[in-house]
Amino acid sequence: MIRTYLTYSRDLGDFMPDLAQLYTQGLSGIRIINKGKTAAELISRVKEIQHYCHSRQIDIEILIDLPGEKPMIGSLGSGMQVQQNLVYTLCSDGKELLPQEIPTINFLNRPDLENIKTGDIVSVADGELEMIIEELSTDHVRCRALNSFFLRTNRSFNIRGNKLPAQPLSRQDLLLLQEMQHLPEQSSIKLLVSFVTEAAPLQRARANCPGFPVLAKVENVITADRLDEVISASDGIMLGRGDLSAASRMADIFIFQQLVIERSKALNKQLIVATGLFGELKNSGKPSISDIMDFGYLHSAQVNAFLIAGSNAAQYPLETLYLIRNFNEL
Questions:
Q1: What is the pLDDT of the chain when averaged over all its residues?
Q2: Where in 42-120 does DSSP place strands (E)?
Q3: Residue 20 in contact with residue 56, Cβ under 8 Å?
Q4: What is the pLDDT of residues 98-110, one digit of tens each?
Q5: The Pyruvate kinase barrel domain covers which part of the protein (predicted)?
Q6: Quick check: 10 pLDDT over 60?
Q7: DSSP secondary structure of 255-318
Q8: Alpha helices in the chain (DSSP H)
Q9: Band (328; pLDDT cuts 50, 70, 90)
Q10: What CATH number does the domain containing 233 carry?
Q11: Can you tell me the mean pLDDT for 118-142?
């Protein structure tokens, strides 16, 4: 039976009343990302979801994604429509914005910013928006948009080739772990540590928040030995194909996906495949042949858990669940 998780974000529209309907269509759990909220605000949201599920007698897992420290889009209010071929300036968060300025967090102050150059591609929101760098300065980076996209606060980004690698477990993540120990209901919650390349961040998460299952989100190509170390130290794996595609050469992604599938099965750990599922839905409202072949391959490889993310989570959750349920019935 395929287990399906959905990225939940109040910023993308309050679909809390739909969780019961989504559950009847095969939803197994939801993923909440720890960014843009205080620990108290996120825990309040978790309690709200737990109360909702208990009142309707539905069994929903909650994956709390600890995103680590990486460049993100700063405060954009209600959002910004980025237009293809227009030039935008990436600047610091917290300043009064001029037209076509995009605020950023954990970007312009990074010591490894010297690794980027003109011609590099900025990949935002798992590649849903791409911009080419045309000008560099000490206090801004000017880019031309390669496609149109409605951009919101807290969307993460990187430079293609993983030139600004993310670090697992930010200070905000650790503060949340401390507060989570006081949650009255913990049985439905799992922790998801992002950008794991070794066992140490998983061990640190367990030490800071004992008693919770800890999953590793793998978003960089690593060696087979290092992957086995990560899988063995975790209670499950999520393969984050969005950041993986930005951090790795395209030729390596399929080979690494194969390795993750094989090693997860060999070590008897749950594998959740995330991002890039039925991507054509957002453009035409129906899956492409490539979408069907990709998911069919993963299903035949006995991957039994998937995460609906991005535009599909916000706009097409029922349609995506319907497509996945069809494979369940094969």
A1: 91
A2: 61-66, 72-73, 80-82, 87-92, 101-105
A3: yes
A4: 999 999 999 998 9
A5: 18-320
A6: no
A7: HHHHHHHHHHHHTT--EEEES-TTTTHHHHSS--HHHHHHHHHHHHTT--EEEE-HHHHHH-HH
A8: 19-24, 39-55, 171-180, 200-208, 224-233, 241-247, 250-266, 281-284, 289-300, 310-315, 317-328
A9: low
A10: 3.20.20.60
A11: 93
CA-wise closest residue to 154 among 64, 79, 94: 79
pTM: 0.88
131 and 269 fall within a common domain:
no
Whether residues 230 and 109 fall in one domain: no
Given a contact cutoff of 8 angstroms between Cβ atoms, the answer to whether 307 and 5 are in contact is yes
Q: How far apart are the first and last CA of the chain?
A: 11
The percent of residues in the chain predicted with pLDDT above 90, rounded, is 65
Q: Which domain holds residue 279?
A: 3-69+166-328
* CATH, residue 82: 2.40.33.10
**Which two three-digit tokens encode residue 85?**
């071929």
pLDDT at 13: 47
Residues 201 and 297 in one domain: yes
* Cα pseudo-dihedral 41, 42, 48, 52, rounded to 10: 160
Looking at the fold, whether 182 and 312 belong to one and the same domain comes out as yes
DSSP 3-state assignment of 134? strand
Q: Which of 159, 175, 190 is at the close of a domain? A: 159
Q: Of 123, 143, 159, which residue is a domain's last?
A: 159
Q: State the alpha helices, DSSP H only, in 28-79.
A: 39-55
Orientation of helix 171-180 relative to helix 200-208, angle to 10° = 40
Clarify whether residues 126 and 227 are in a common domain.
no
